[in-house]
Amino acid sequence: MLDHIGLSVADLKRSRHFYDSVMPAIGASCVMVVTLEESNGTYEGAGYGRNGKPSFWIGSGGQTKGSLHIAFAVHSRAEVDAFYAAALAAGGRDNGAPGLRPHYHPDYYAAFILDPDGHNIEAVCHEAE
């Protein structure tokens, strides 16, 4: 249903460093950048995704009010583990170590971190392993 989602961040350089470090763990990368010049000085941001399609954007505009929860679907539990390790190494804060969350369903395997702006970012695998 969703095509893409975007977050305003307090410090674009800091957030780019964080997501540039974390997204490869789940098979994604920065696939598009929009500069201030391209947007007539109104926006700059980075779009992350797979296969050249940006689905997750971070951009200028100041920190989003309140915190958001975003879950990235991944293909394996190993990707969940790699996401969690990469996020902690990049300065993310633990918000739930990798593991099963059977209260959602028996194969719900996820990890949660808080990004530099305090957003709850999750990687989740729904496959039995």
Automatic annotation (TrEMBL):
Stored InterPro entries: Glyas_Bleomycin-R_OHBP_Dase, Glyas_Fos-R_dOase_dom, VOC_core
Gene3D superfamilies xref list: 2,3-Dihydroxybiphenyl 1,2-Dioxygenase, domain 1
Signal peptide (residue range): none
Domain VOC: 1-126
Pfam family, one: Glyoxalase
Protein origin, superkingdom: Bacteria
Annotated protein name in UniProt: VOC family protein
Species of origin: Rhizobium helianthi
